[in-house]
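Quick one:
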Amino acid sequence: MPLCPLGWSKDISDTPRVSSLRVDPKKSPSAFLMERLKSNGGEHVNPAYDSNLDEPPVYEEANGDHRTVRPSVISAFGHDTLDRLPNIDFYRNAGSVSGHRAVRPSLQELHEVFQKVSEYTVEDDGEGSDGTPSDDLESAVPTDKGAVKFGWIRGVLVRCMLNIWGVMLFIRLSWIFGQAGWGLGIVVIVLSCVVTTITGLSMSAICTNGVVRGGGAYYLISRSLGPEFGGSIGLIFAFANAVAVAMYVVGFAETVVELLKEHGAIMVDVINDIRIVGCITVVLLLAISVAGMEWEAKAQILLLIILLVAIVNVFVGTFIPVTTDKKSKGIFNYNSKIFLENFPPDFREGESFFSVFAIFFPAATGILAGANISGDLRDPQAAIPKGTLLAILITGVTYLGVALCVSATVVRDATGNITDIISAGVECTGPAAAACELGYNFSSCAVEKCDFGLINNNQVMTMVSGFGPLIIAGTFSATLSSALASLVSAPKVFQALCKDNIYTILHFFAKGYGKNNEPIRGYVLTFIISVAFILIGDLNMIAPIISNFFLASYALINFSCFHASYAKSPGWRPGYKYYNMWLSLLGALLCCVVMFVINWWAALLTYAIEILLYIYVKVKKPDVNWGSSTQAVTFVSAVSNALSLSGVEDHVKNFRPQILALTGSARTRPALLDLAHSFSKNYGLCLTCEVFVGPRSEALEEMNAGMEKNQLWLRKTKRKAFYAAVVCENFREGTESLLQASGLGRMKPNTLMIGFKRDWRTSSSESVQCHVGILHDAFDFEYGTVMLRMNEGLDVSHIVEQTKVIYYKKLTLINQVSVCGPPPPQVAKMNERLLEASAQFKKKQSKGTIDVWWLFDDGGLTLLLPYILTTRKKWKDSKLRIFIAGQPGRSELDKQEMKSLLQKFRINCTDINVIDDIHKLEDMIEPFRLHEDSKDRAAAEAMKKEQPWKITDEELGIFEEKTNLQVRLNELLQENSKSANLIIVSMPIARKESVSDFLYMAWLDILTKDLPPTLLIRGNHKSVLTFYS
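Output:
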């Protein structure tokens, strides 16, 4: 339905420059904006900028009239100015959580402050936005006041230490050093710390490069590498934390059940008791988490104290004199011989360095515990680097200290029999030499497996310690603290992911509750996942996958740091300077290697899941823009490739049609754009261009408003093209600017595409001269030229709905187009046919032909373009038919020559037709004839000077043969190509200053009249085809 023209209610020239509207603090933003809009009569409003603070300065008049100078405009050096001094508030996101966002005066408001400002609106078709601001979603105005925020010790250091100090410290560390020896054992711990330290350095660099919000690893990766990487790793990282809760709880439950078993208090059986204890435990942990971060933090402090006491208990126990019972179990005081005997590795039962490393490394994967609650930290930029790196140092030293103390006091094998004492005079040799020298004979362990010693007993720490029950308490503390940290981390990360709406189906979990914006829904989901895995009971197959999920996160954090440094974006300015891009890349590679070392199939599964999620997000294309390093590297690569391409000379084999299409607005001539896009597709340059005609001060704002809108429309409709526009006093000058300046280096358009001017007979002479002049300019600049004619026309601008939109923060005011009454049936039917024809080239073409009338050799463009069309899916059912001009009497010979040429060009066609025989035009050109022959000489000369654009009798006589050729060609086209899907004809050329513009338009009109869609093509007479390899 055609719509009435859109316009504001009051002309801009009638409105004053500055509104006198004052802000009523009781009014809503919408009411304020509506009043302001009315007072401005519809002129441009910068919604976030209050012009009341910046009215033109007033001075004391010479006649004695005094007006006060408002201090708010005395902003620099005591002078009255609208300019503002640099301030942090100008650089905040909309709705910043850390302060009010101020908006500086726009360039137009400064540039034209004492002048009339023309109307400036932002147009939208309703497809581009849902009314939400384009700023980062994490900058939304916070609704939580008085939220609990943690410093670097409680928020990061404590959490990381509790997560890194796991059950491995008390149960498996002695076994690892028994198998690998303390030499390779140190390598295992140091290598793990190297990986985590490099990751910590990379994370420190990333989180000090701007404000960090909630979401931890997901936030850091997504804001650095973009939503594709962040969305994929965020989901699997949150899931890994949820399953990790089950792992730690099952570890705790197993210890409890072992104690029940010792005291004969088993409830059902071992596996069901583990399930019962695990479910009860996770319910209690959930209650602590839901109670709030403050309660959870207090619980973590209590668990830390217990854990520290247990660790100290181990060190104290190594100094307490040992009993005979302990000696029989291989535990002694510090002894250099034991220490040296435990130095070399003694791998047993198929273990190796890599298998031992794989068992230990999960103990080091808790370094993100602090970053995962980044939204609850008082100053994440300072807290995360300091707390994480210090936690890695403290826990690494602790692991080494405990392991070395045990290695110096406990032998690898012991019988536990107090009667295995060495007789006097026996020579001590072999693997149990140290125990032998200390008076015990454990040589039987070389024959049969013993129950005690570093390798054989997982309770060595309990026996070494000063008070055994404290180690059990420490084990409980380590498992519960890790479970609690994971139970908090998973919902927090998941909530941040859901808030960004990357996976729309998960947006339900974005809602938070309470002053800390607690993700209650996320807690419930984590609880359900945890219980499901607790009920399975056996997590031996799942554990390696979880470790690999964590390692994949570490690898991407390291790669994010490397990628951001490599892109050399000016926006990469981390406050933490102790990082190196190549060290980060090494860390990423190390993480990948460790993934395969731990479990190769789990690593492959992790990569497969990540790739699938990456592809999903890539295809969905979430509407976010976080300024990722991926964008920066893409830009750097594009510039680099463009520069390298500029150093290579063009070659005919690599010729591609680079289209500059004069479509006007991107959606104004869809048929022209679709055909241009079919020529370039993804493999060539396509520019859809618009010329705004009029004074620059008026047209410039309209152009700026439409730039992003048109490019967005091209992207949404999946047309791989660029939108370009210029402002000029007349259309021809604007097109000339586009022809000369468009493109970059070798990526410049070489083919102009334009629509046929159907109304040339009713248009002004200036309009016709402009249209033909554009063709002359294209030939002058050696462009190939393509003109499309469709009987229904090309321009649908009078049908396209136009909506003008002004955004005021989250409020959208829409001034909808008023709808006129229904158009006459004839007009409605014409519009329907026009819309149907405009969508013709977007659909798959039916079986038919593309008829190519290659009448003149133009370098091959007339043949190349239709061949390119046949390679596209939409045109694959259309076959080429070639029509050529021949000489009477040698049609068969001309046909064979053309067939041979096409074979050399490797272009297939179904038929070759030779036209060897080559009504009237008078009615069409009659209004534009001069008829000077019927006047005397003086009158004829005067008429020529007065109306130089008219067709003279002399000109008509000179070009009579060429004129008749166009008439005859149309007859042949009607006869041979009336049913073709598309007709392509060599475009006739009008010699400058010889053929008048109206005669030339008459040629083009009569040649293409009453035909299917027709393309007139003329190359620049440089070869675009070759038969050489």
